[in-house]
Amino acid sequence: MVIFLGKSVTETCFNVSGQTAIVTGASSGLGMLYAETLADLGANIVIAARRYDRLVKFADELTKKYAVKVVPVETDVTKEEQVIRMVQTAIDNFGSLEILVNNAGVASVLPSVSMPVKIGKKWLTPT
Ligand SMILES: NC(=O)c1ccc[n+]([C@@H]2O[C@H](COP(=O)([O-])OP(=O)(O)OC[C@H]3O[C@@H](n4cnc5c(N)ncnc54)[C@H](OP(=O)(O)O)[C@@H]3O)[C@@H](O)[C@H]2O)c1
């Protein structure tokens, strides 16, 4: 661990305690990791994705484990009105918004050259 004037780098450079964060794509994978890290650092969070049931369960887990508030919002980031509602939910619940983790997306385990054209087209076409 690197120490800065008696404090860790995390405490010095990433003091997000009491701040408000939105994490998109927080129903699985990296988004859950980002949300839990922010909760551990003391940020209140709006977690967003399309699978609302997973968000509700995860929000419950985080609020039981950390002393923060977590609000789940069903959001498809390709729908402008849903993104506006997501941001408004953060402001309405917490009064400000300092952090956006713009993580929602799709990941593939295939090398790009092996990706079927059908899947590539789906990724590039907004729904
Ligand atoms: N894992 C890697 O090695 C890697 C490498 C480079 C980049 N990335 C990027 O990192 C991000 C997360 O990857 P991951 O591995 O954690 O993927 P993942 O487990 O498939 O998670 C993707 C997340 O994005 C959400 N999502 C997808 N489309 C959405 C939409 N239209 N609106 C709202 N939420 C949406 C999914 O939730 P719902 O289905 O519930 O909506 C899910 O929570 C992706 O953007 C990916 O491209 C990942």
State the CATH topology.
Rossmann fold
Strand content: 15-25%
User: Main beta sheet, described?
Assistant: 4 strands, parallel
Which superfamily, in CATH terms, is the homologous superfamily? Answer: NAD(P)-binding Rossmann-like Domain
- What's the alpha carbon Rg, rounded to whole Å? 17 Å
Helix-strand category: alpha/beta
Shape: globular
Tally the helices. 5
Number of domains: 1
- The largest sheet has its strands arranged as 5-4-3-6
Helix-strand layout with pairing:
Elements: E1 3-4, E2 7-8, H1 9-13, E3 20-24, H2 29-40, E4 44-49, H3 52-65, E5 70-74, H4 80-94, E6 99-101, H5 117-124
Parallel strand pairs: 3-4, 3-6, 4-5
Antiparallel strand pairs: 1-2
Bound molecules: NADP nicotinamide-adenine-dinucleotide phosphate.
Task: Describe, in plain words, how this protein is organized in 3D.
- With about 130 residues, this protein is α/β, with parallel strands linked by helices.
- It has a single domain (about 5-125), classed as 3-Layer(aba) Sandwich (Rossmann fold).
- Helices cover about 45% and strands about 20% of the residues.
- It is built from five helices and six strands, in the order ββαβαβαβαβα.
- The strands form two sheets. It has a four-stranded parallel sheet with strand order 5-4-3-6, with helices on both faces.
- Strand 1 (about 5) and strand 2 form a beta hairpin.
- The chain is globular, with a radius of gyration of 17 Å.
- NADP nicotinamide-adenine-dinucleotide phosphate binds next to helix 2.
- The site of NADP nicotinamide-adenine-dinucleotide phosphate (NAP) has 20 residues, from helix 2.
